[in-house]
Structures are given as C-alpha cells and as structure tokens.
Write a structure and sequence with these properties.
The protein is of the alpha+beta class. It has 3 domains: 201 residues, Nucleotidyltransferase, domain 5, CATH 3.30.420.10; 124 residues, no CATH class; 133 residues, no CATH class. The protein is built from 19 helices and 13 strands. The strands form 3 sheets. It has a 6-stranded mixed beta sheet with strand order 8-13-9-10-11-12. Strands 3-2-1-4-5 form a 5-stranded mixed beta sheet, with helices on both faces. Strand 4, helix 4 and strand 5 form a beta-alpha-beta unit. The longest helix is centred in the C-terminal third of the chain and has 24 residues. It is globular. It starts with a strand and ends with a helix.
Length: 469
C-alpha cells in the first residue's frame, strides 16, 4: 500500500512547523482508499516566514481559529499511520521532493511529542522527484523539459508545478494546498508510468554498474546550472571516486570538489583533513539517489593523476578500512531538531511520551519532572531529551516560565545561534521588515489579505519577544 503525502510548512528550516497536512492511501493502481487531512495552529514558539506564507497562501489568523494544536496533530498522524501498518504490515510513504523535506518535518513532529517516527522499519519512503529526474536523464527526447530563468541563471526546472503543466496535468497555477498537491502527485506518477513504462515502486535510488567493484571511478548524470546565464544542457556528468560501496549507502569523493581544492593549494600535502572531508559525499537510499555509470577509458585517463593521489592518501585509506570514522568526523553540535536520530530510540522516546502524559495530567508537575531528568542526566542523549521536554512544555503550557521561553526565543529569532547555517537565516526583525516591504509592493488582493493576517500575528509575536527577551 502506498501513502502519498504533502505538507505546507512555516519555514524551509526543520525548526519550523507543519501548518497543513494531507495523506492519501492508495492501492497499487493508485486508486484512493483512505485519507487524512488537517491544519495545525501555530505554537507560541513559531513565527512563520514571509516567503513561506506567500507560497502556501495560508491565512494564519484563520489557521489559529480552525487548526488543531500540534500535539493533537502528532497523535492523529501517528495513530493513522500506525493503524495502516498494523492492517497492511508495511506502508510506503511517497512524496514529491519529500525525502529531504517533508520526511524530516514528519519525523520532527512525531519526535517532539514522544512518538517513534520509524515504526520499527515498516514505514518505507520513495521520493517522486528522484524518479522523475532519473526518467528525464535517460529519456531526453520524450521528457517534457521546462526551461526556467532566475537571477540571470537558466536551468531546467523540476518543480511539481512546472512538470505537471508541461504534461498538461495542471492547467493553472499550483494551489500549494497539501491535499490538492497530493492528488496532483498521484496523477503525475500515473501519467509518467504509462508514458515511460517505468514503475515508481521499482525505481532503485542506488544502482551501480556490474563492474563497480573493480573500478573506483564512477560517473552520475546530474542537473546543469551554467553560471554564465547560457542555456543549460539536459544533464552533465559528475565524477566520483568510490570509497565505500554498499547496497543502500555509498561513501564517495566528488572529484570536482577535490580538483577545486588542488587549484588553490600549493601541494597535495597542504590540503587539510577537514578540507578533504568536505569533498566526501555520503549517499543514502533513504534520502538521495545515485545511478552510477562506468567511465570510458579516456575519462579515467583524464582523472588518473588525482586518482593516484587519492590512492596514496592515508586519510582516505583509513576511511575505506573503517567507514564509521566518517560519521564521527562529521558530527556537528547542531540543534536536536536537525538530527533527531541523535536522541536514540532505546528508551528516550518512551520517556518523553510518559512525561508528556504526566504534564497533561498535572501542568504544575513540570519543575519536578525536569528535576527528575536533570538528576539522571549522564549523556548527550539525555541532554537532547531535556531540550525536547522543555520545548514540549513551552508548546502545551498555558503560562510557561518566561525565562525558559527566553532561552528558546533569543537564539532562534534574535542571535540565530540555534540554526545549522545562521548566515542563511534572517532574524525576526528582518522578517518584520520583509513583511512591511511585501505589503508596500503587493498588488494581489488575496496576498494582501494573507500578509495583513500575518502582520497581526507578527504584532503579537513581537510583543511576546520583547516581553521575554
């Protein structure tokens, strides 16, 4: 059974929140059998980004009146998926550009309220976008290519809206309504399966040539983004040196990235371990796709010098012998909601679920429950559990501790310390200015109404921010 899904969110960052959700269960012929849809009101710690709201067209004032609390949504969605798995034994989640976006939002939502998002391995996942790109690269003449331009750059678009319009499946603009996007995705899959005679569920996100064990140099077809504004190619090749090849995961050195380092470094020995590490890509079938091809003789000869340097390098040799070192080396001190797997799923999730119920039954128990966690803290996982418990308390308590609220709001909306890449994030004040600018230039009546609703929410959020920080 296939469970197609889509979310509209408050942010592109995983610290954000799902605002609306849609799940549609289908059989192998993509005929709908069951569905679940809903809207989630914003937590007090959530302030939507202007661009996100302009994209999903959600009126946040209506959302606060008609949506359900996030903890109720987490329970509803978990129960829905869990019952489907009990009935069908295994379910495959299918979304468009979902493996690196919607899937992480789903897992974060469930973990926040003490639900294990992995369902004992019985919830699989497929990304339609990966399948679509694979079809495009190997069916150049039949694929409905859409040439787009953005900031003087030209590229072939793989947006759901563009592909479905080019395929005559969508005759107007994409609504960005979660349920309508799910139905559109189902139509696209059905249409492409018939057109290209390829089943989505038979697509293997990692596929290597038969002789890949005998060669270290592999190539992959990839999207082309020319820097000079010229017309892009349908695809280009990227070249990789394979360190570790496993059925569902790969550890590869991006040759182009390593060449770029060599072009600015005086010698190979002057390249640091951290710089070498930045050239390595971990490719996992649950999130990425890699269709490898064998290189021609002339391609191998082109890169032979750098291959020889890699072969003689002790750092890369050690990673080949012990791939687990790679994951230790790339560990970051990111917020738990960027890496929810770090909490561990032996007992921490069950503990959070228990604490949630105790807090609901007795809101005044928070100090004692927190003290219980602090007294037993012995590991990083315990610290992550405490962070999630504190955030749960902030989201469900009617009158949370102002000091604790400040500890969350300041690093997220003022200093940006909470974010993985703070240089790419805007503060609340910057978002507020962006909102004012959007209102001055917007001419669409519906968008103006949506922005005014967001402005009301920003006014209240600003008051909270000034009060607590």
């Amino acid at each position: 059974m296939y469970l197609f899904y889509d979310f509209e969110t408050s942010s592109k960052e995983f610290l954000g929140q799902i605002l609306s959700y849609a799940f549609v269960l289908t059989n192998s012929n993509y005929e709908p059998l069951n569905s679940l849809t809903g809207k989630i009101k914003l937590n007090r710690t959530q302030c939507p980004e202007v661009k996100a709201i302009l994209t999903n067209k959600i009126n946040v004032q209506n959302l606060q009146q008609t949506g359900i609390p996030e903890y109720e949504a987490a329970q509803t969605i978990f129960s829905f998926i869990n019952q489907l798995i009990k009935h069908h034994n295994q379910i495959t989640l299918i979304g468009f550009n979902s493996n690196n976006f919607d899937l992480s939002f789903l897992r974060n939502l469930l973990v926040r309220y003490g639900f294990n998002p992995y369902f004992n391995g019985k919830l699989k996942n497929i990304d339609i976008l990966h399948w679509i790109q694979h079809i495009a690269f190997y069916n150049e003449d039949q694929f409905p290519w859409v040439l787009s331009e953005n900031d003087t750059k030209r590229y072939y678009s793989f947006k759901l809206e563009d592909i479905t319009q080019a395929s005559a499946l969508l005759t107007n603009e994409q609504s960005h309504d979660a349920f309508e996007d799910v139905i559109l995705s189902i139509k696209l899959v059905s249409y492409f399966e018939q057109k290209f005679k390829q089943r989505l569920t038979e697509f293997k996100p990692i596929l290597l040539p038969e002789n890949s064990d005998n060669t270290h140099l592999l190539k992959q077809r990839y999207r082309h983004f020319p820097e000079d504004g010229s017309n892009p190619k349908k695809y280009i090749y990227r070249y990789f040196y394979s360190l570790v090849l496993q059925p569902k995961s790969l550890l590869m050195i991006n040759i182009k990235d390593l060449q770029a380092l060599l072009s600015v470094k005086p010698t190979w020995t002057s390249i640091t371990q951290e710089e070498k590490l930045s050239c390595i890509q971990y490719i996992n079938s649950n999130k990425h796709f890699f269709i490898g091809e064998t290189c021609e003789k002339n391609e191998t000869e082109t890169y032979q010098t750098i291959i020889d340097l890699i072969n003689q390098d002790p750092f890369f040799a050690n990673l080949q012998q012990s791939p687990k070192q790679y994951f230790q080396l790339i560990k970051k001190e990111w917020d738990i909601e960027y890496q929810i797997h770090e909490i561990g799923f032996d007992h921490h999730i069950d503990t959070l679920n228990r604490l949630k119920h105790e807090l609901f039954n007795n809101p005044e128990s928070y100090p004692n429950l927190l003290q219980e966690l602090l007294s037993k803290r012995t590991s990083k996982q315990d610290t992550y559990l405490i962070q999630l418990f504190n955030r749960l308390y902030l989201n469900i308590s009617e009158n949370p501790d102002p000091a604790l609220l400040t500890r969350y709001l300041k690093p997220r909306y003022i200093t940006k310390e909470m974010y993985r890449n703070p240089e790419e994030i805007t503060t609340f004040d910057q978002q507020d200015h962006e909102l004012e600018d959007a209102l001055k230039t917007c001419e669409n009546e519906n968008d103006i109404s949506i922005l005014n609703a967001l402005k009301e929410y920003y006014t209240l959020f600003k008051t909270q921010l000034k009060t607590t920080v």
